[in-house]
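input
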Amino acid sequence: MLLCSVALPPCTVSAQAGADERADSAWVLQKLARPAPMRTAFVEIRDSPLLKAPLRLSGEYQRPRDDTLVREVRAPYAETTTIRAGQATIVRAGKSPRTFSLSRVPELARLQASFGAMLSGDRVALEKYYRVETQGTRRRWTMTLLPKDAQLAAKVRDITLYGRGAELRCIETRPARTAKGKTGEIQRTLLAGAAREADKVTTAEELAGLCHGDAAG
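output
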């Protein structure tokens, strides 16, 4: 800090050069590693021909322990999903809790394991489930996860992470095509700073722009 205060131009150039370096998977995973406990806000907008208007969900992801993942929806309804010890428990206001084994939905178990690996910065474990492709610079990068497992690939075509520096701002999941060649709706989840910037986002198109970094912020 003292060095920068007496030599601001060289420090600024150095920081700029670092930000413009190409990002690779090892660097991204190192920056994304978050030891438990951790939490981050999220915003999702789900669009469907069956809905009169896009459904906006907001809440918080929590990782109180390394083996536990919690998704807490706070609006427009209250619902908490906890994944731990091979089970998922869903608690929704006014209803009895529902618990089921992840063995019933193996793709969910694999997703939990892979994101646990990502949050731990464990590249070897992540590459057990996905082929990993990283593009962009350290200032603005994308990491695409392509499922290796046939069961997961039958559900998910790919998962793309969008980030700026050490901040993971958006996760975009594209469903696989069905036997009839159709695909479901792309799911986009804004996280951290991008979630906070989404206060005025009301459409799937605006969410996509913020997810991809096309919007200001």
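quick obs: The first strand starts at residue 38 and ends at 46.
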